[in-house]
Amino acid sequence: MQIVAEQVGKKYRKEWIFRGVSLELSAGTSYTFVGPNGSGKSTLLQLLAGSLPATEGKLTYRVNGHALDLDDWFRHVVVAAPYLELIEELTLTELLLFHQTFKRFKSGLTPDQIADRLLLTHARHKEIKYFSSGMKQRVKLGLAFFSEASVVILDEPTANLDRQGAAWYHEQVRQLSPDQLLLIGSNVPEEYDFCPNILDVTRWK
Ligand SMILES: Nc1ncnc2c1ncn2[C@@H]1O[C@H](COP(=O)(O)OP(=O)(O)OP(=O)(O)O)[C@@H](O)[C@H]1O
């Protein structure tokens, strides 16, 4: 799996958030986009995820050297981010069952096993709307960690997590498969201390 960005730029109204982003991001490693608040990390991750259109430039998704149709690309990517909402009316078990209908979990993990791995066994039958912000964040991360996907995108992964949650994040993120491509948006060094490729988005201002 490879994401290729060629001279990609994003403009909101009259303001360019970034321009001239040219990157080849390949599976088997991780990349972290860093930069101050408002510098464009989330915007760039959303472009790379295919959920926001670029204003200029081209993004290509390749599997084994072949370009993927954008309609197929969504099968390959999972995103956990503060701006993505969970379905609040569902219980955790219902949410996991629903998720499974469009994205399989790794190695046939069942919803109960996922709840155990999220350290949320006790909350399986509780509606998501009654979860604390840290519990919701663990669910979002878990959906990303435990789904079959070639590309895992994590924006501000430890937002709302306490020390135990942050330790859980570190344990899980290190267990991602070497075949997966991991992209992180962060300005918290502890979130990406294992990551070999750090890209400051202000270089594209
Ligand atoms: N929908 C939008 N319309 C107009 N401007 C936007 C929109 N979304 C983001 N922006 C602007 O784009 C810039 C980059 O925002 P972005 O959220 O990507 O930054 P960030 O680096 O992720 O910030 P943070 O660290 O605070 O999460 C900001 O100036 C923001 O105001």
UniProtKB/TrEMBL annotation:
PANTHER family under this entry? ABC TRANSPORTER ATP-BINDING PROTEIN ALBC-RELATED
Which GO MF terms are attached to this record?
ATP binding; ATP hydrolysis activity
Q: Gene3D superfamilies, alphabetically?
A: P-loop containing nucleotide triphosphate hydrolases (3.40.50.300)
- What start and end residues bound the annotated signal peptide? none
Q: Does the keyword Transport apply?
A: yes
Recorded protein name is ABC transporter related protein
| Keywords, ordered alphabetically | ATP-binding, Nucleotide-binding, Transport
What is the superkingdom listed in this entry's lineage? Answer: Bacteria
Residues forming the ABC transporter domain are 3-204
